Amino acid sequence: MGRPLTEAELVERARRGDQDAYGELVHAYQGIAFRTAYLLTGNAADAEDAAQEGFVKAFYALGRFRPGAELRPWLLRIVANEARNRRRSARRRGTLALRAAAAVPSGGAAPSPETSVLDAERSALLLDALNGLREEERDVVACRYLLELSEEETAETLGVRKGTVKSRLSRALAHLRQRMEVDDV
Amino acid sequence: MSELELALVSLGRQLDYPETPDLSGAVRRRLAEGERPRSWRRPLVMALAVLAVVVAAVMAVPQARSTILDWLGIGSVTVRQVEELPKIEGSDLRLGRRVSLAEARRLATFAVRVPTLSGYRHPAVYFRRDVTQVSLLYGSIKEPKLLISEIWAPGAIDKLVTTRTDVELVREGEWRGAWLHGGEHVLYLPGFDRELRLVGNALVVQGSDGVTVRIEADVSKQEAIRILRSLKKGE
């Protein structure tokens, strides 16, 4: 049995029209692409449509993908553009929600019931504050912190400079702090 | 990271994401069926095939025109009709930094074209990294006479038009797109909320390689198309 192909090899095959190779790349990135689209649209149907369309567009655009560049942010940028198009067309933005069991951490000691309630309340407050941000600030926070992309990936995904990411994050965090303080009163 | 930043990371792990659909299977099926991206197929094939004959008449009907323009995506550019144009402050072209043509060709992820017509061969070249756009400027930044912009990025630009702007579909060789004239429209970069600028006449077309070219100048449609026809890729 041969070794699995590297991402670079899959990209090269896909550039030559190998749809199976491209399917493997889609499979590898469909989770982060769908979550990105979902955070930008706030709607599962729009997110699925945007991610699928983005992957199809990216296949036909692979000829313009610079060999050696990072594939993930390049794909996410195309998907993010599709997602924002749908958000504009719908003239609405969905709001995000927490999982029902959101307050239970994934590891470590089980929290006390009081701690869980406090964590859940704080998360809900933070999410409310986030949902209230301007789109450009919410988008950059979503990519950088919720999706845990690097600053470079965030810049590439949103099609802005790294400096713009930094300044928007700074403004967004200040606005979140203000909103959280107001909510705490 | 600050406490707030850590809280946001934690929040991201607690969000109620819907289950990821089988995108891989859906994409494979679409590619196997030879399906092109919808924004190419729907706006251009449908718009051109169905509307070419009656486009002038249909464009005269405000409601039909609005519907058609909502479909009209030309590569990186989406044309949308709005009731009123947003207010514009300033008229900065925001072309990025001045570069040599050779540098622009090295930086761009697509083959940059330059007019071969006499008098158009030596533009000032600008490169904007964030949207990977190459612009060829004739005249000065303050008094531009002609601006040719080349970009490849799906959904990178919106053009907002009102009923005062005439939109004619254009099909010229490898190019498909529209000629916008008769009334100012607004160019808007999604993701850059404050980046709006007024544009007069503009030819917006997509080439067979997916690159979108915008030719903005106070010239006739025939002259804009003459410039378009002369565009050639470099080495």
General description of the model:
The complex is a heterodimer of chains A (about 180) and B (about 240). Chain A contains eight helices and no strands. Helices cover about 70% and strands about 0% of the residues of chain A. In chain A, helix 2 (about 20-40) packs across helix 4 (about 70-90), helix 6 (about 135-145) packs across helix 7 (about 150-160) and helix 6 crosses helix 8 (about 160-185). Chain A is elongated. Chain A is an all-alpha fold. Chain B is α+β, with helices and mostly antiparallel strands. In chain B, strands 3-5-6-7-14-13-10-9 form an eight-stranded antiparallel β-sheet. A five-stranded mixed β-sheet of chain B has the order 1-2-8-11-12. Chain B has a two-stranded antiparallel sheet with strand order 4-15. In chain B, a hairpin with a 5-residue loop joins strand 13 and strand 14. Residues about 40-60 of chain B have low confidence and may be disordered. Classes of the chains: A mainly alpha (about 180), B alpha+beta (about 240). Chains A and B meet through helix 2, helix 3, helix 4, helix 5 and helix 6 of A and helix 1 and helix 2 of B.
How do the strands and helices of this protein lay out in sequence?
The complex is a heterodimer of chains A (185) and B (235).
Chain A: H1 7-15, H2 19-41, H3 44-61, H4 71-90, H5 113-131, H6 135-146, H7 151-158, H8 162-184
Helix pairs in contact in A: 1-2, 2-3, 2-4, 3-4, 4-7, 5-8, 6-7, 6-8, 7-8
Chain B: H1 3-14, H2 23-32, H3 38-51, H4 55-59, H5 62-71, E1 73-74, E2 77-81, E3 97-99, H6 101-107, E4 113-115, E5 124-128, E6 133-139, E7 144-151, E8 157-161, E9 166-172, E10 175-181, E11 185-188, E12 196-199, E13 202-206, E14 212-217, H7 221-229, E15 231-233
Parallel strand pairs in B: 2-8
Antiparallel strand pairs in B: 1-2, 3-5, 4-15, 5-6, 6-7, 7-14, 8-11, 9-10, 10-13, 11-12, 13-14
